[in-house]
Amino acid sequence: MDRREFIKHIGAATVASSVVLSACKSGDKETPIAKNVIDGQGEMTYRTNPNTGDKVSILGYGMMRLPVEAGGSARENPNSDIDQEMVNQQVDYALAHGINYFDTSPVYCKGLSEHATGIALARHPRNSYYIATKLSNFSPSTWSREASQAMFENSLKELQTDYIDYLLLHSIGGESKELNSTEMFNARYMDNGILDWLVEQKEAGRIRNLGFSYHGDVEIFDMLLRWHDEGRYHWDFVQIQMNYVDWNYAHVIEPENVNASYLYDELHRRGIPAVIMEPLLGGRLANQPDFIVKQMKEREPETPVARWAFRYAGTPEGILTVLSGMTYMEHLVQNVETYSPLRPITAEEDEFLMKVAEEFVELKTVPCTSCNYCMPCPYGLNIPVIFSYYNTSITEGKMPTGSREAKEYWEARKRFLIGYDRNVPSLRQANHCIGCKQCVSHCPQNINIPEELHRIDDYVEQLKRQ
Amino acid sequence: MLRKTRILLQVVTITLVTLLLLGIGFRVHLWAGWVAKIQFLPAFLALNFGVLAMVIFAALLFGRIYCSVVCPLGIMQDFFSWLGGKVKKNRFSYAKENKVLRYGFFAIFAIALIIGFAPLTTLFAPYSAYGRIVNSLFKPLYDLLNNWLASMDAANDRYNFTEVQIWTRSVTTFIVALLTLLILGFLAWKKGRAYCNSICPVGTFLSFFSRFSLLRVRFDKDKCKSCGMCEKNCKAQAIDFKNGTVDYSRCVVCGDCLDKCKFDALHYTAKRTVATTKPVDKERRAFLVGAALAGTSAALAQTEMKLDGGLAVIEDKKAPKRQTPVTPPGSVSARYMQRHCTACQLCVSSCPNNVLRPSTDLQHFMQPVMSFERGYCRPECTRCSEVCPAGAIKPISREEKTAIHVGHAVWVKDNCVVLTDGVSCGNCARHCPTGAIQMIDYEGHQVPAVDENKCIGCGACEHLCPARPFSAIYVEGNEMHHYH
After folding, report:
1. What are B237-260's pLDDT values in tens digits?
2. pLDDT given at position B38
3. Which residues on B lie below 8 Å from A377 (Cβ)?
4. pLDDT for A303-359, tens place per residue?
5. Chain A, nearest residue to B421 by Cα
6. What is the pLDDT averaged over residues A419-442?
7. Which residue of B311, B380, B431 is in closest CB contact with A376?
8. Which of A9, A408, A418, A466 to mutate to test the interface with B (most CBs of B within 10 A)?
9. Nearest-angstrom CA–CA distance, B329 and B40
């Protein structure tokens, strides 16, 4: 079960209640309606940006997983066009419920996210929202000064505006086969003088806040903050990955990664506001195994599992906004409820979530957030779907376990293998990974993708031969 | 009574055979597999003496009931004949036995069988003809239904049906099957059991025994009013009411005449009342099945589903030109296969990995060969050897399978992505179930090297090779399988 299904199931009651409730406020209320009484009883929580005084909603809208006409988001139906009508409707709802931060990029949704975001937002007064977009000059063809400038100018055009509220250097810390992380950073932002050019744009008022998003090599993160300390560049905000698992365990899951606690503390002590991405780890924290769900429900039976993660991400005071890529209206309704207002995580709850994180890490799932950056695989594999199927099978307890004598084992085995074929066409399954490693440098989570695919393939092969 | 029993048994047989040949899953080969194994020609080739003795004994006792209730092709013809009867009633008349055609053809068939000329034997073997019709014509339709059920299952989180690939395994076989259906359907519509009584080698063989059968349809001359209804409804055209005779070499004991006689003048009994007269030989219509062999080039559109975009396009694999065809483990050798297989397509239908398909090569016409564009011969699967009714693929265990070397892998340097794309690979070596492939250093690249002695020819390497459309490693058949 992925996040959207999760929301469908768990969130259905909440959604139904909120929608119905608003619809019959004036009418008779004969049937008692189930309603979560803890959250969603007030106004959206806002945080203040110390640089500009912007009052930013604690919930930011991530425009990376926009709905498409064939259903789902671009990751489910990569060939389908963005469902603009749905995007408009959801943006309207978001604005009406206090969300005022919209985060996009020139590369999201096969390059169409900015355009769709622009259409939706242009229908509202420009001063009623903040736009965040990025200089996503990943491919070498966009490293030249001209190409990078053109990318920025095009963002303005697509977003139908003449200034960007929050502009980010997109995903610093990455590296490739040829270049290490420093060389990569220099090639993208320094050698072409584009960082200085962006500072100029800020002075000219075309950019209101300049920051960066970080994945990968922590050296670059540290370097950029050192520049900030030295006064060489001023970072108005920084976007980091943070959630209750990555807080203490990012480094455990992938040794190359840095714990979110480090990243946040570094920013907080400098007074730099943090924008949070992956608060749900690509939906995986909404899709917890039964024994974790049970613990959460025993504390608060009516609180959706995902809400724990959102409350956690919004709690530290240095957080400016928490981004959520809300494909469905139901995500949106539930998240608005979560943050209206934010109910901060208590010290005792924090301890509970740290325990949950420990158990989550123990599951040994693949730390993939389905961001699709690794795609398309040149050999045709559907990498994120393979990982999510495998992860889901673990978290939903669908792996064949126990005695091979038992009938249940064989039932589970059959389900797992059939389900694998249903989720991933056979030509796109893990056994076709040749280990060329072309995907590895694209993964913001630093997953050794071929190694994980081979591990899954070995597991499947071993099951088939039984 | 006789007719009703016959129809009931026919329904049971045709249902089981068809389900088996459609490969419906649900372990069908376990509960319906026997119905293929009692078929005459497969049993003959498998030297299954028990079945042969039973069939011959039944012919001596009951006449050609085999042709009525066991042979699926006969049952299919009865269906078309019944349809024809709906349009035009009482349409048959006695015809003399066409001895030249019948015995001439039988002799040719027997010689073909002895010298092992497969194209002829497989073409006229009745069960195999039906097998091809189901496999080529009905299976795609069933697969469509199956895939629809599978999609419903998937939507409801059930696991009864799984999606299968729908593809034409051989255009030639498809055309042969279509022509067989059209010609036999037309003949049966017009002339009842004409094929069974003039061409079918099994029918002719059984006629040698049915002439002397104990139980048979006999006239009661005292009761017969010479209305001729029996003759007009005899689809074997074996009743001559004027002379009060029945040609028992052609009677398939369907019981239609008994039901049609209003005067109770016909009985299926052991009691002798009148003597039979020998039918006189005279020429009969020719059956141009040979025409089925002509014209093979009509292209059939592949019905495979389009894949999602946004992902890299995967080019379809093409089969390499193999010097020696690869035949499934258990089939001993191409030669053994050629002599034993009746090309019924049951193994082709049953192959869960889309490996088997009918050969288009004249020597092995429509007999199964292996190719690995859509899957490979998985180490845990012995399905074809379990279902084969003719013993052309001998039963083997999983353990035996991994010791049967049906072919050997050959590396094609020019296609290898390690050299063409400059990437690291090794997918063949990683998936070789016998560890026959090692990656070795070659001009600074890691390329596969095959230990021919360990390779069993399963095709894992060929199927999983990233080079497209032609794999950089492919399987060459072994003329005779190696056992070690």
Report:
1. 999 988 888 999 999 999 999 999
2. 92
3. 311-312
4. 999 999 999 999 999 999 999 999 999 999 999 999 999 999 999 999 999 999 999
5. A436
6. 91
7. B311
8. A418
9. 24
| DSSP per position, B110-179 | HHHHHHT-HHHHHHH-HHHHHHHHIIIIIHHHHHHHHHHHHHHHHHTT--S--------S-HHHHHHHHH
Single-letter amino acid code for the residue at A215: H
Query: Distance between CA atoms of A113 and A111, rounded to whole angstroms?
Result: 6
Token code pair at residue B170: 């051989």
Q: Does A421 touch chain B (CB under 8 A)?
A: yes
Could you report the per-residue pLDDT of B192-247, keeping only the tens digit for each? 999 999 999 999 999 999 999 999 999 888 888 889 999 999 999 999 988 888 99
Q: What's the domain range around A170?
A: 39-362
Query: Do residues A208 and A264 share a domain?
Result: yes
CB contacts, 8 Å: B428 with chain A: none
CA-CA distances (angstroms) from residue A209 to A115, A146, A148? 21, 22, 18
Q: How far is B374 from chain A (nearest CA, A)?
A: 9
Does residue A32 form part of some domain? no
Residue of B nearest to A378 (CA): B312
Q: What are B161-179's pLDDT values in tens digits?
A: 888 889 888 899 999 999 9
Q: A24-38, B175-189, B295-309: which has the highest mean pLDDT?
A: B175-189
> Which DSSP string corresponds to B216-234?
EEEE-TTT-----HHHHT-
Separation in Å, CA of B438 to nearest CA in chain A: 15
Residue to mutate among B26, B146, B308, B425, with most A CBs inside 10 A, is: B308
Domains defined along chain B, listed by start: 2-130+177-269 (no CATH), 306-483 (3.30.70.20)
Q: How far apart are the CA of A450 and the nearest CA of chain B, in angstroms? A: 11
CB contact under 8 A, B424 and A427: no
CATH of the domain at A163: 3.20.20.100
Contact B125, B176 (CB under 8 A): no
Quote the pTM value: 0.73
Q: Does A378 touch chain B (CB under 8 A)?
A: yes
Tell me, yes or no, whether A356 and A391 share the same domain. no
Is A215 found in the same domain as A100? yes
